[in-house]
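In the current project phase, the collection of sequences with tokenised folds has grown. A representative record is quoted in full directly below:
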Amino acid sequence: MHDFTAAILSASYLGIFAIVFAETGLLLGFFLPGDSLLIAAGLVAASGDLHLGGVMAAVIAGAILGNTAGYYIGQRFGPAVFRNERAKFFKPEYVQQAEGYFNQYGKLAVVVARFVPIVRTFVPTLAGVSRMPIAVFTLYNVIGAVLWGVGVPALAYYLGRLIPNLDRYILLIVGVVLVVSIIPIAIKVLQARRQKTA
């Protein structure tokens, strides 16, 4: 636990920005600690070692710029990947499905995906592949980034101020958050498999 807190402190605001940017903007960043980082940073801020406003600013900036990078990666490279016959996992019909999904749920998806691990890494890229209008994407990108970047660290901060020594249980708290976040994904996957089987 001490090592985790020390890592947050050593990373400071620039490190928080970089991790959030990579997790939300680069496809290989899905394994990075998004929610756990925000919770830990909020608790560290509650202890006075970081400023809550600085944490929020770093998260929001990293989230907005990261999602924007992911969008342009999808827009620039997505169509070429989907047209490649050797890319067996990326079929042209997936693009059509993505476009249909974003036409119907795109705005909500960009906001809600912020709170779902792994999903938040891929949604901006899919938005770019499906050619979601950049103005619309940017608006909901900013809304989602502010809600996530303010809400999660602030909740951790105020719980840390309310409950003494709560920072000792960061790993447990993070574990609970991850499980709760993954449950909706697991339910959707099971429902899709049942429908496919039926």
Observations:
- Residues 2-197 form one domain.
- The chain has seven helices and no strands.
